Structure formats: C-alpha cells, structure tokens
C-alpha cells in the first residue's frame, strides 16, 4: 500500500505545477531546430508555414511573426485562415487585404497582419494590367466573378500573387505566410501552376484567337472551325456560359500570357535564398505522414526547407513511472483483496488458507472494523481518488508512447530534418501573451536556453543540484 501511494505521490508531484508538466522531454534525438537565428538573420525575408490542416499553422505563423517583431524586425503575417483566429489573438477586430499594424508588441520592431481576400487580390491584378474601361468589363463579367470567387486553385494562386506583391514593395523585413488550408499540403505548390496553365491553355487561347486576329477578317477566317467548336462547347457548357467565357477572354487578351509567367516568378521566389519553409505537424500518424511527403516534395522542387515544427507534443513530469506500474498500483488500491493492506503481504484476504483456522473470516473482520470506524475505511475514498489519478497518468504515458513511436518513424525516414517541439497547451491561444508563450516554447528547444534539459540550470541536467542523482 505504501508503495502504491508513493507512486501516486510521484504522479502528483510530477503534474502538480505547470513547470513540471512542461518538463522538456523531447520525443526523439532528432536535430534541434534553432528558431531565433532564423528569425534574426536579415537575409531571411520569407518564412512559409506549410502542412496539413488542423495542425496549428496559423498559430505557429503568428507566434513566429510576433517573436521576430519583438526581436527588432518589421514583419507582416499573411494568413488565409477563414476562422479569423489570428485577428482575435492579435487584438484586431478584423483583418482584410490591407496589412494592419498590431498594437501591444514589445521591443523595437513592428508587426502587421493581413488576411488574404482572394477576390480582391484577383481584382487588383486585373486593375493593374488593364485600362479602366477594359478592367470594368472584366470585373463585371459573370465568368470572371465565378473564377475569382471560387475556381479550383484560385486561392492558392492569389496567395502566391499577394506574396509577390508584398515582396516587391520591400516594405517589410520579413514576410510570414500561413498557407491555405486544404486537403493536401501540396496544393500550395501545385494549384498556382494548374490555374496558370488553364488560363494560358489551348482552349482559352483558341477562344481568344478571333479577338487577337482582329475584326471580321479574323472571324471569317475561323468562321467554320469556330462554329463547329463553339457549337459543341455550347452544348456541354451552355450557350450563356460560353458567351460569358468568350467575352471574358476577349477583354483579357492584353493580360493573357502573364498568369503563368507571374506564377512561375513567385515559384522561383520561393526557391530563392532568403526563403525558408517550415513544415508544421502534430505528433499524429496522418499529420506526420503528410509532413514526410511534403519534406520529400520540397526537396524534389529544390525548396529551402529549414525544419519541422511539431505542435501539441504531450509530456509528463513523472515520466519515470511507467503506464504498467501506474495501472498495477491503481488495481491494488481499487481491490483490497489483491494485496493484504494491513501488513503489506501479497495474497487474497478470502484465501482458502483461512478456513478452519482460529482467525475469523475476512468479511467478519471487515464488518467489525467498520463498526469500530477502521482507519482503512476512512482511507477508501482517498484510495479511489489516487487510483483514478494513477489511471489518468497511465493514459498519458500510453499517449506519450504512441507519439514517440510516430515521431521516431518520421525521424528514421528523414534524419536530416531539424525539429522544434511545442508542448500541448491546456487551451487555445487567444491573445498576444499566448502567442508570445508559443514563441518562447519554440526558443526553449535551444540547448543554451535555461528551460532546455541540456542546460546546466535545468533541474533535469545531471549537474543541477535538484537532479534526482543529487537528492
């Protein structure tokens, strides 16, 4: 019994404070990603946070932007998150297509934030490359309105377009990009090329051909072929839609040829020195499988990957107590027949050895003890509470074990990828203080940081006076 309670004390002491809960026990021995040198380097101009949905990309991007700003840089964070959590956490009522300065930051730098307005960005491209009359015709075209509002790949294309605009202005030291949420993290790389190829494709150019050839001569030249083609397409798409498309491409003929070129230019910007990709994931099988696929794709596309940010990593300050030991102790406390709690000897109280002896049956002994107000009965509620705590700890240790195995598989597959771990938080991040905390946790991965277990001032370091070896 004393052993079971001692193990319970180890759990309560290990989980009783926030500091203990966050004891930095890394999931693996992978290379540590050092965030601060990346953010401090004036040569780093773009940081792209990418990964599958629901792994904390938006929070990570905002935390990195805040940390860079408070270390002296002028930063803009571009998010495509429709939940608008970024605006709330930065104390801004709403975000739009114009960078808004964030108040309440510390240090000499500046932090701005904006949310991609996909349609407005597309409108800006049209307005910048067409005269006012032609631009008005394009913006009013039904086909263009559908294309700019929700055509497949438009969001990713416009995210890259906006990134190119921000970089060309050269107003910010650092641009942090939160990539669009999508079913596949690869959409951010693939969709702009697909859309550019569509807008510059054979069908669009064929529809544009009469306008480019000019007047009635051009139409007469292509009259027979165009009639056959438009008749077929009209049956498939509908006559009005075809007319809208033809009107659209006729108005856009001066800007066609630029879509693919612009997408390629931004793509090269992502490959250039000064750009850094951070893959963001959670210690879950699907998220890390997607992260591994993205790492391989970035390498194939020669994109500059700097590391992996692993969010929501669970830790325990009582890691020396295994799940098996915790469960065994809980069972001992929950069933008094397993261990003779009076003298600490193992054996069933209702064992056949008690029959025929001068000792009364265990049930009679328990009843007599109950009538006398036995201390054991007074301890039963405490034992049940303690057993529940031990089972919770066992669940936590089993979760840690699963996360460890998942992370180890990723590390074995990609040992070259540096990793920064962010411990799981009890709640959502909703203000600058929470974002600042995330940034501090990322920085705490550095061995020279006092919160890192390899630092001499950390309690888990062998040279620390509070290390178990010295107690």
UniProtKB/TrEMBL annotation:
Family annotation (CDD domains): ArsA (cd02035)
Location of region: Disordered: 1-26, 338-381, 441-471
Chain intervals with Low complexity compositional bias: 357-376
Pfam families: ArsA_ATPase
Ranges of compositional bias, category Basic and acidic residues: 1-13, 443-471
InterPro entries listed in its UniProt record: ArsA/GET3_ATPase-like, ATPase_ArsA/GET3, P-loop_NTPase
Domain ArsA/GET3 Anion-transporting ATPase-like: 44-313
PANTHER family documented for this protein: ANION TRANSPORTER ATPASE-RELATED, ARSENICAL PUMP-DRIVING ATPASE ARSENITE-TRANSLOCATING ATPASE
Protein name: ArsA family ATPase
């Amino acid at each position: 019994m004393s052993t079971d309670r001692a193990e319970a004390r180890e759990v309560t002491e290990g989980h009783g404070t926030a500091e203990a809960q966050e004891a930095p026990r890394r999931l693996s021995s992978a290379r540590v990603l050092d965030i601060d040198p990346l953010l401090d380097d004036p040569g780093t101009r773009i940081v792209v946070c990418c990964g599958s949905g629901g792994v904390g990309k938006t929070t990570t991007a905002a935390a990195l932007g805040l940390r860079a700003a408070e270390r002296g840089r002028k930063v803009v964070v571009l998010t495509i998150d429709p939940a608008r959590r970024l605006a709330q956490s930065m104390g801004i009522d709403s975000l739009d297509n114009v960078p808004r300065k964030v108040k309440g930051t510390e240090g000499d730098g500046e932090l701005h934030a904006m949310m991609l307005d996909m349609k407005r960005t597309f409108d800006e491209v049209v307005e910048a490359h067409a005269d006012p009359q032609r631009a008005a015709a394009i913006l009013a075209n039904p086909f263009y309105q559908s294309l700019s509002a929700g055509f497949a790949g438009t969001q990713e294309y416009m995210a890259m377009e906006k990134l190119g605009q921000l970089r060309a202005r050269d107003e910010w030291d650092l641009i942090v990009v939160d990539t669009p949420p999508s079913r596949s993290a690869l959409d951010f790389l693939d969709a702009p090329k697909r859309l550019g190829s569509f807008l510059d494709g054979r069908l669009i150019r064929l529809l544009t051909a009469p306008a480019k050839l000019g007047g009635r001569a051009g139409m007469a030249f292509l009259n027979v072929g165009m009639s056959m083609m438009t008749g077929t397409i009209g049956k498939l798409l509908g006559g009005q839609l075809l007319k809208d498309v033809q009107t659209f491409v006729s108005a856009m003929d001066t800007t066609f040829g630029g879509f693919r070129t612009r997408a390629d230019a931004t793509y090269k910007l992502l490959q250039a020195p000064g750009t850094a990709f951070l893959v963001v994931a959670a210690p879950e099988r699907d998220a890390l499988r997607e992260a591994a696929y993205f790492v391989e794709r970035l390498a194939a596309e020669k994109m500059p990957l700097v590391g992996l940010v692993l969010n929501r990593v669970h830790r325990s300050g009582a890691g020396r107590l295994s799940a098996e030991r915790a469960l065994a102790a809980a069972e001992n406390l929950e069933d008094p027949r397993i261990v003779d709690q009076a003298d600490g000897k193992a054996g069933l109280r209702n064992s056949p050895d008690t029959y025929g002896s001068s000792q009364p049956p265990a049930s009679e002994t328990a009843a007599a003890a109950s009538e006398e107000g036995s201390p054991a009965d007074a301890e039963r509620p405490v034992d049940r509470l303690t057993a529940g705590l031990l089972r919770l700890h066992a669940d936590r240790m089993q979760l840690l074990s699963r996360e460890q195995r998942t992370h180890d598989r990723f590390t074995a597959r990609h040992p070259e990828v540096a990793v920064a771990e962010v411990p799981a938080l009890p709640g959502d991040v909703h203000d600058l203080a929470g974002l600042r905390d995330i940034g501090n946790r990322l920085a705490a991965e550095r061995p020279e940081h006092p919160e890192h277990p390899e630092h001499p001032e950390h309690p888990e370091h062998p040279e620390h006076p509070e290390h178990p070896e010295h107690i």
